[in-house]
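for the recovery benchmark. C-alpha cells below, seq after
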C-alpha cells in the first residue's frame, strides 16, 4: 500500500500495523499505512504529507475561531445600529457562542475517526456559513427580539467545535518529538482568528459611509468556501486516526484527563474568555477609548505566544512552562486590579496583554503535557509502555480537555457580567480568577513536579 489517494476499499489498521477486517468502500482520500515514529518513513514521505495537511487545517481552524468570536466585536456596535440590549444581555451574546462551542467539541472529536480528517474539515468549514449568514441577516433588523438574537449568536459555536477535530486530526500526523510545536502552530493559527476578527470587522463595517453591520458576517463567506475547497484538494484521511468511544471512556476514567482538563480551563479558558470579553470590557470601563484600535491586541499576542509555549515545552517539559504561565497570569490579574483602582487605561491594557501572553503560552504547554503524561502512565499487561493505547487515549483526552477548557469562554464573560451587575466593578471577578490560578498552579506542581511524585522525573 502507498501514501497515494485511494477511494477503493480500505483495510483498517491500528497504529501498530495489524490488519483488521475489510470495510465497505469509503469515499475520499485515505492513507492506509502511517507510522511517523519510524525515522525512515518520516524522512522519506511522512514529513511532506504531514505538512501538506497542516496548513489547510490551520486555515480552516482560523476561520472557525473567527466566526466563533464574531460576536465579541459585533456587540460593541449594536447600540449604534439601533439595538436597545442591556449590558448584561450583550455579555450573554458574547458568552453563548463559547458555551455551544465547548459542548460541540466532544462530538467533533469523534467525527475525525468516523468520517476522516479531510472529509470532516470540509463539512465543518461549510457549517460556518450558517452563523455567518445568520448574523448578516439579523444585525440589519434592530427590532429582532433578544431571544432570537441569542439563538443566532449561539450558532457561532460551530466555529468553536472545529478546534477539537482539527487538533485531534493533526495529532495523528506528527511524531511525538514534534507534536508540541505542530499542535501549537495549528492552535495558534486558529487562535489568531480571534485577533483578526477583532481587527478587521470594525474596519469593514464602517468602510464607505455609515455603519453596515451585516458585512461582519458576509466578509467570511468567500473564505469559508475557499477553506472547503482547499481541504478537498489538499488534505488526506488517515485510517490510523482511531479515537474510538472505547478509548474515550478509558481516557475519561484516567484522573490525569480531568487534571489536565481543569488546567486547560485556566489556560485556554482564560484566553478565549478574555478574548471574548475584552472589547466589551474596554467599552464599558473606559468608554472614551476607541475599541476598534485596541481590542485585537490581546488575542494577537496570546495567539503568537502559543506555539512558543509548545516549543519550550518540548525542550524543558510542559509542566514547568504551565506553572510559570500561572504565576505570570496571577501577576497580570493583580496588576489589572491596581490599574482599575487607579483608573489607568494604560496599566489595564498592559496587564491584560501580560495575561494574554501567559495564557497563550500555557495553552501550548498544557496540550503538550497530554501525550507525555499518557506515554508515561499507559502500561500493557507485562508492565511495559503501551504506546498504541497511549496515543489513542491521548487523542481522546485532547478532545475532552478542549471541550472542558472551552467552557472558560462562557464562565469568564459571565463572571465579569455578574461582578459588574452586583458590585459595580470588575475587581471581584478578577480576584476570583487570581484565586483559581493559584489552585491550578498548586495542582500542576503536586501532580507533575513535586519531588518524589510519580511523574517528577519524566519531564512531562
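predicted aa per position
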Amino acid at each position: 500500500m502507498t501514501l497515494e489517494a485511494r477511494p477503493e476499499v480500505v483495510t483498517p489498521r491500528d497504529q501498530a500495523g495489524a490488519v483488521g477486517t475489510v470495510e465497505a468502500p469509503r469515499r475520499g482520500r485515505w492513507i492506509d499505512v502511517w507510522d511517523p515514529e519510524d525515522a525512515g518513513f518520516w524522512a522519506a514521505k511522512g514529513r511532506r504529507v504531514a505538512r501538506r495537511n497542516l496548513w489547510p487545517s490551520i486555515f480552516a481552524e482560523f476561520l472557525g475561531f473567527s466566526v466563533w468570536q464574531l460576536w465579541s466585536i459585533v456587540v460593541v456596535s449594536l447600540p449604534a445600529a439601533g439595538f436597545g440590549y442591556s449590558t448584561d444581555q450583550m455579555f450573554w451574546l458574547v458568552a453563548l457562542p463559547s458555551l455551544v462551542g465547548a459542548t460541540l467539541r466532544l462530538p467533533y472529536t469523534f467525527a475525525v475517526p468516523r468520517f476522516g480528517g479531510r472529509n470532516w474539515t470540509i463539512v465543518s468549514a461549510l457549517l460556518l456559513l450558517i452563523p455567518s449568514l445568520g448574523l448578516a441577516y439579523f444585525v440589519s433588523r434592530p427590532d429582532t427580539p433578544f431571544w432570537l438574537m441569542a439563538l443566532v449568536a449561539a450558532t457561532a459555536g460551530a466555529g468553536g467545535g472545529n478546534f477539537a477535530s482539527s487538533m485531534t486530526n493533526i495529532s495523528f500526523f506528527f511524531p511525538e518529538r514534534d507534536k508540541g510545536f505542530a499542535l501549537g502552530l495549528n492552535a495558534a493559527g486558529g487562535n489568531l482568528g480571534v485577533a483578526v476578527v477583532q481587527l478587521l470587522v470594525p474596519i469593514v463595517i464602517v468602510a464607505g459611509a455609515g455603519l453596515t453591520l451585516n458585512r461582519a458576517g458576509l466578509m467570511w463567506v468567500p473564505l469559508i468556501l475557499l477553506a472547503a475547497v482547499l481541504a478537498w484538494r489538499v488534505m488526506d484521511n488517515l485510517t490510523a486516526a482511531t479515537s474510538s468511544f472505547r478509548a474515550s471512556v478509558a481516557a475519561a476514567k484516567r484522573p490525569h484527563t480531568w487534571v489536565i482538563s481543569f488546567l486547560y480551563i485556566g489556560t485556554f479558558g482564560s484566553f478565549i474568555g478574555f478574548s471574548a470579553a475584552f472589547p466589551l470590557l474596554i467599552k464599558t470601563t473606559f468608554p472614551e477609548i476607541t475599541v476598534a484600535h485596541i481590542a485585537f491586541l490581546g488575542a494577537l499576542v496570546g495567539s503568537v505566544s502559543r506555539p512558543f509555549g509548545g516549543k519550550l515545552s518540548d525542550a524543558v517539559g510542559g509542566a514547568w512552562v504551565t506553572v510559570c504561565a500561572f504565576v505570570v497570569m496571577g501577576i497580570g490579574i493583580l496588576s489589572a486590579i491596581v490599574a482599575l483602582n487607579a483608573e489607568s487605561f494604560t496599566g489595564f491594557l498592559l496587564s491584560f496583554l501580560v495575561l494574554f501572553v501567559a495564557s497563550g503560552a500555557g495553552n501550548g504547554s498544557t496540550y503538550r503535557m497530554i501525550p507525555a503524561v499518557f506515554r508515561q502512565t499507559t502500561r500493557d499487561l507485562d508492565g511495559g509502555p503501551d504506546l498504541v493505547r497511549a496515543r489513542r487515549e491521548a487523542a481522546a483526552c485532547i478532545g475532552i480537555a478542549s471541550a472542558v477548557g472551552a467552557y472558560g469562554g462562557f464562565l469568564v464573560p459571565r463572571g465579569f457580567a455578574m461582578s459588574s451587575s452586583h458590585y459595580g466593578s470588575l475587581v471581584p471577578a478578577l480576584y476570583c480568577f487570581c484565586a483559581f490560578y493559584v489552585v491550578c498552579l498548586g495542582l500542576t506542581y503536586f501532580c507533575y513536579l513535586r519531588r518524589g511524585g510519580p511523574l517528577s522525573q519524566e519531564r512531562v
